[in-house]
Amino acid sequence: MSNWKYLTDRLAAEHHLTDEEMKAVLLCDAPGFDEYISEKARKVREAYYGKDVYLRGLIEISNICRNNCYYCGIRSGNTNCERYRLSKEQILSCCDIGYELGFRTFVMQGGEDPFYTDELIVSIIGDIKKKYPDCAVTLSMGEFEKESYQKFFDAGADRYLLRHETADKAHYEMLHPAGMSFEHRMKCLRDLKEIGYQVGTGMMVGSPYQTAEHLVKDLRFLKEFRPHMVGMGPFIPHHDTQYADRPAGTVEMTVRLLAIIRLLLPDVLLPATTALGTIDPVGREKGLLAGANVIMPNLSPADVRAKYLLYDNKKVTGDEAAEAVREMEKRIASVGYEAVVARGDHADFRE
Ligand code: 5AD
After folding, report:
1. Where are the domains of the chain?
2. pTM
3. Minimum CA distance residue for ligand 1 atom 3
4. For residue 203, which atom of ligand 1 is closest to its CA?
5. How far apart are the first and last CA of the chain?
6. How far is it, in rounded angstroms, from Cα 31 to Cα 143?
7. Ligand 1 pocket test, candidate residues 70, 205, 311, most atoms within 8 A of CB
C-alpha cells in the first residue's frame, strides 16, 4: 500500500499523526490523494452529523477596528476604508429577519471597536436571548480581558470565535504589529474555554510567509487545544495592505486542510468559509465534500456588506438575505447535503 494511503487511514482511525507524517500528508502530490482523504473525511463527518449542514446568520456589526493586522482590509491604518457600525436596533432587526429564515444561531462579528462597551454588548446579547431563547449567540469580536468574556457569557453568549491566525510566535509577529501579542491571543483562547464557551479558532491558509512547518504547528495546536469549531479559509490579498501583491492561498490546500481537520477532530464544527467561496465559485461545495458541515450566510444589512471587506473580491450581493439563503440551500443540496433549522451545538454541549 502506498504511504499516503497508510497515513490517511491511520489519521482516520487514530485521529493523530506525528509532525513528520503530517508534513508528508500536507505536501503529498500523489494523484488520487485528495479524493481519497476527502472521502475519508466525508465518512467521518456523516458518522457524526449525517447529511446536516448548520447555518449561522452572520451579522457584521462593525468594520471599525483598533488593530492594524497587516493582512486585513479593515485594519486601523487603512484610511481608504469607509467605516460603519450597526446600532443595537439594527443588529436586532437582522436577528428578526434571520429567525424568520430559519437561523437558530446569530454570529456577531466585527473589528475591535471600542464603541461596543461591555455594557452595550451585554445588553445586546440579553435582548437577543430574551426575544429568541431558542437561539445560540456567537461572538466574534476579538480580544478582551477575561472579566469581559465572563460578563458576555453570563449575559447568555454561547460561543466565541477567535482565530489564533498562526500557532508560531515568530510568524504571528510577521503578520501583526508590535502592539499585538501572540501570548495574549492564546490567553484569550484559554480564558474562553475556561469560562465555558464553545470556542472556535483557526488560521488562514497561505498567509504571507507561511510554511508547511507552520501548518504542522497549527494542526498540533488544534489537536491539543481541542476547539469546538475551526474557522479556516484561504488568505486573500487586500489591495490596501502591505501584502497586496502576495498570492492567495489555494483551494486545493484549503480543502485538503479541511479534510485533515475533520479527521484530526472528528466531531468539530467546521465551516466552509466565504473566503473559500471567493477564490473558487464552488469552493464551499468542495469544502462540504471534504468534511465541512457549517455555512455562515450573511445577514448584515445590504448597504453595509460592501464595506466589510477583509480581502479583495469578496462576493457581496445586494440580494435580500432570504434570496441568499435559498441560493445557499440549493448549493448545499447540490452536493447531497441538507441545510437544517437547528442551533447546531457541538456534541459536548447538547442537552
Ligand atoms: N484574507 C483572508 N482572511 C482574512 N482575515 C482577515 N484578513 C484576511 C484576508 N486578507 C480573517 C482573519 C480573521 C478573520 C475575521 O478574517 O483570519 O480572524
Report:
1. 42-340
2. 0.97
3. 235
4. 17
5. 43
6. 42
7. 311
